[in-house]
Each structure stands twice: as structure tokens, then as C-alpha cells.
Amino acid sequence: MIRRVETVTRRESERLTYQEKIHKIAGTRDIGAILIKLADNEDNSDPQRVRALPDARALVQRYEEAKRTLSAALVPLLAR
Question: What is the pLDDT of residues 49-68, one digit of tens each?
């Protein structure tokens, strides 16, 4: 479990953009890590939370793109 949390945590030392990190998580083929990141993004996408942040529209778009990427990586893993 700790390994999965470390996998989904974006560290400044990695020097990855958010989308690069999402693609890296998707590429791990780790169902647990992908599900954790999807749940994290769902929680971060709460409309009340997002409304309070500057540039909410860009944030919602970022989370939607991440959801598509992670979901696309998850489908073949669940079909096994």
C-alpha cells in the first residue's frame, strides 16, 4: 500500500508535469495505484472544493483528462 501511495505522489524532484505523472501512473499497470489516483482526483474534483479555487475551469479540465487517461489504462487490466 505504501508503494502505491508513493507511486501516485507527485514530487517536485521528479520534474514531471501533472499529465506526465498521470501517464507514468497509467504506465505502471498497477490496478491499485490507478484506482487510488482516480479516487484522489474524484475527491479533488468536488464542485464545492473546485469552486473555491482560482482557475477552476482549467483544474476541472485537467482532472477530466487524467480520468480519461487512467480509465483507458485500467480497462484492459480489468479485462484479464
Answer: 888 888 888 888 999 999 99
